[in-house]
């Protein structure tokens, strides 16, 4: 099951990176450091509670994503799965709050948000109904029996796969903005160095 998801994610990431490279190639103006800072702290969200909820959701979901790497570690501290469950609950709670309080309910946002909610809650329930090792074995191979844990896992992977497919369309801004800034800053630094070198040669 993991191999299927990773294959889908790899293709989706390739498409996203292509869009990023295209945006960088077509960009004519550099992004200011202030704009990127506002991007990372969600400065465009004026409501303090919504901004806090957005930051907490993104922190928890990123933590959860990196936590999935522990699937390749056979023996982990017994506390780790509980932490993972708590992180999943945190992501679910804050995203639910964001969906409930959002005034602009466009279909794309709702689609991605509900998929993410489904991923989070199915991951949480997996941790509650089955031991970690059992879930890891199923994830690395495939479910050999139909039960609540295997059903939740299949649903979790399905939602995650659909999210991965939607990545180039719905989530490019999460990748494009910071990369675009860094590339343009490097490009601008090289240009300044070239100008300074030319000035020294003239003088």
Automatic annotation (TrEMBL):
Is-annotated flag, keyword Transmembrane helix? Answer: yes
Q: Which UniProt keywords apply?
A: Membrane, Transmembrane, Transmembrane helix
- What stretches pass through the bilayer? 49-71, 83-102, 108-125, 146-165
Domain of life, per UniProt, equals: Archaea
- Note the InterPro entries from the entry: NarG-like_sf (IPR036197)
Q: What is this protein called?
A: Respiratory chain protein
């Amino acid at each position: 099951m993991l191999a299927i998801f990773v294959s889908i994610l790899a293709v989706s990431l390739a498409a996203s990176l292509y869009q990023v490279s295209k945006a960088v190639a077509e960009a004519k103006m550099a992004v200011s450091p202030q704009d990127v800072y506002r991007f990372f702290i969600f400065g465009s969200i004026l409501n303090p509670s919504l901004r806090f909820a957005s930051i907490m959701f993104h922190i928890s979901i990123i933590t959860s994503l990196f936590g999935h790497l522990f699937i390749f570690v056979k023996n982990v501290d017994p506390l780790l799965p509980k932490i993972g469950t708590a992180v999943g609950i945190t992501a679910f709670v804050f995203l639910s709050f964001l969906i409930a309080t959002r005034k602009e309910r466009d279909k794309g946002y709702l689609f991605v948000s509900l998929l993410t909610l489904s991923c989070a809650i199915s991951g949480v329930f997996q941790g509650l109904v089955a031991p970690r090792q059992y879930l890891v074995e199923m994830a690395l191979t495939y479910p050999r029996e139909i039960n609540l844990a295997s059903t939740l896992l299949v649903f979790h992977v399905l939602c995650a796969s659909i999210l991965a497919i939607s990545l180039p369309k719905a989530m490019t801004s999460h990748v494009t903005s910071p990369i675009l800034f860094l590339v343009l800053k490097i490009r601008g630094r090289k240009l300044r160095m070239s100008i300074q070198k030319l000035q020294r040669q003239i003088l």
